[in-house]
Amino acid sequence: VLTKEILTKEVLTKEVLTKEVLTMKVHKPHDIMLSHLFLFSLLSTPAISCPDNSKRQYSHLVKRADNTADWTYDIDYNWGALRPEYALCQIGTQQSPIPLSLATGSSQYHRPTFENYDRNVSGNWTNWGYGPEFNLAHPPNDYTGLPSVSWGDETAYLLTWHIHAPADHPVDGDSSRAELHLVHVKADGDYVAVFGIRIDPGTTAADDNPFFAQLPQPIPFVTTPGISPEEDPPGIEVVQDVQMDIGLALDSVDRFDEFWTYRGGLTSPPCAEGLRWFVAQKVSVTSTDQMREILGACTFSARSAQPVWLHGVNEQ
Q: Is residue 188 scored above 90 in pLDDT?
């Protein structure tokens, strides 16, 4: 339970952080009340709908009347104590991200098949408050014309992609400089899967990455993470009708020929679960200049790796 209002990131200095920690009473896992377990049962499946881009509710972009978020990546260890609806951040069994290992091998199940990625698609180019983001254009409440991916009896449609820095998923203890997330929804707009691509710089000019070479100049991150771009407050720029070939991102990692997959959730509050994660084992390589440009538009946005529990890594 918090006895004070959580400060926004802009004023979270070390001195203030120390003061706030001293005035908190933090629930330990074994102290969670049964009421939180009830909340867990309600939140165990993501209920975040995703209508057309002009009114979308994106997992990382927390809409608030005062244009501030009540959480930050810098102190992610206590998200579950901030609000009752964030309880899963602390008591969830399939939280994301998780540590991965090459020793686990590549998944033999849920192999993805990509359709309609190899073409230019239009959308809005912006910054989600922590790094570059691209939202694909589509008719209101109709996602079936977007690039799609299938595995088993599931079909999902690419709604948006964004970048985290550093990478969310450490592999054998090491984290890449950044990570690209391709966020997919079902035909009804509910989130269903995220495809993660780790990004690192190469050593020569020949490492210029065709996917990043086609992108417009990155829009710098804003000073108030958590603001929704469609509200268009001061300081947020949105460039519309940008075209790009997202299939080039898939090509950079051999179209997920080797990958990890697991049952996970959102990497920010409310930490809802029920998503299928795919993480490419191959790293997408950029030139030094490209990586510097990416990082220059980013601010810290990596949640701490969560304990592997009921994630079913590479399981059917």
A: yes
